[in-house]
Amino acid sequence: MKLIEKLKKKKKTVIIIAIILIIIFMINRNINDAQKALEEAQNKIETEAIEKRTIAKSVSTTGTVTTENSKEIIASLTGTKIATVNVTEGQKVSVGDVICTFDMETLQNNLSDAKTTANISNAQSNLSIESARRNLADAMKNRDTQIVSAQKEVASAQEAYNNAQNQVNSVSDALNQKQAELAALNASQTETQNALTLIPDDKALQEKLATQTAQKEAVTAEIAQMQATLPELQQVANQLKSAFDAAVSALSTTTSTADSNIATMQDNLSNAELSAKSSSIARKRSSAKL
User: Fold this and answer.
1) pLDDT-based confidence at residue 229 (cuts at 50, 70, 90)
2) Can you tell me the distance from the alpha carbon of 206 to that of 196, in angstroms, rounded to the nearest whole number?
């Protein structure tokens, strides 16, 4: 019996020693794991407060957890009240599910205001275009009227100048003829005087000389009158020539001004049409947002 008890005691001792060794091995293993984790933590330059805790094997890391499929939904409506919410937080939804509904009264009011604004804008654009078209038509009409009037002024001034210059030319030609006639009378009178020198009592030569003298006086008077009148006529012609030149210049200025005014009216019409088109595009984009 004593031997059996000794064997039992010895067996218990061996078991206890084995348990102690296992515990020591596990402790050493946990210590080694803890040292490795500490070295990794030190390599990451992280610090932790010293505290008493159970030694356990763990691995820490950082990262971002994302879903496999995600979608961000942003509503284009602003300032609109939500009437109902048909889902709860975390609830799974499918395509086509109604998530929420909005206050349609506000949307209807906004839509009505947008339509009213669009109609007003359309009317304003149409008025601007029609006004620009009228201004262009008036400018073209005025151009024709002004140019026709200026052309008449040019024609009238030219006719007056031509008449005055023709009169100057006519008097000048008559003066030349009278001067030639006077020269002929002087020559004839000289011959008659020479004949009377030879026959002083010849009454026919005396009458002829008297007639030649009277004719010479008349022609001389006419020449004197023409010579006095010709500068006055030339002065009038020069004035009318200046008036004609001024009328021609006025016609050129009128034409240039009228053409420039028409070009401006055409630009205004083009700008009005482009502005209307731009406003239309902006209104369509605004309506699309509503």
Assistant:
1) very high
2) 7
**Residue with tokens 């003298």, as numbered in its chain:** 213
Helix, strand, or coil (residue 63): coil
Listed as own residue / partner, the contacts of 30-37 with beta carbons closer than 8 Å and 24 or more positions apart are 30/55, 30/56, 30/57, 31/55, 33/57
- Say which amino acid occupies 147: I
Ranking 77-81, 182-186, 206-210, 257-261 by mean pLDDT, the lowest is: 77-81
Distance in angstroms (rounded) separating the CA atoms of residues 179 and 222: 9
- 84: helix, strand or coil: strand
Taking residues 209-213, report their average pLDDT: 92
- 75 band by pLDDT with thresholds 50, 70 and 90: low
Which is nearest to 237 in space by CA: 138, 284, 139, 167? 167
Q: Summarize pLDDT for 158-188 with one digit per residue, the tens.
A: 999 999 999 999 999 999 999 999 999 999 9
Kindly report the CA angle at 57 between 51 and 60, in degrees rounded to 5?
A: 80
Whole-angstrom distance, CA of residue 231 vs CA of residue 152:
29
DSSP type of residue 79: S
The domain segmentation of the chain, as residue ranges, is 145-264
Cα atoms in the Cβ-side hemisphere of radius 13 Å centred on 129? 12
Q: Residue 93: its pLDDT value, please? A: 73
This prediction has a pTM of: 0.51
Length of the chain: 290
User: How far apart are alpha carbons 125 and 117 in whole angstroms?
Assistant: 12
Look at residues 83, 98, 80, 107 and name the one whose alpha carbon lies nearest to residue 290. 107
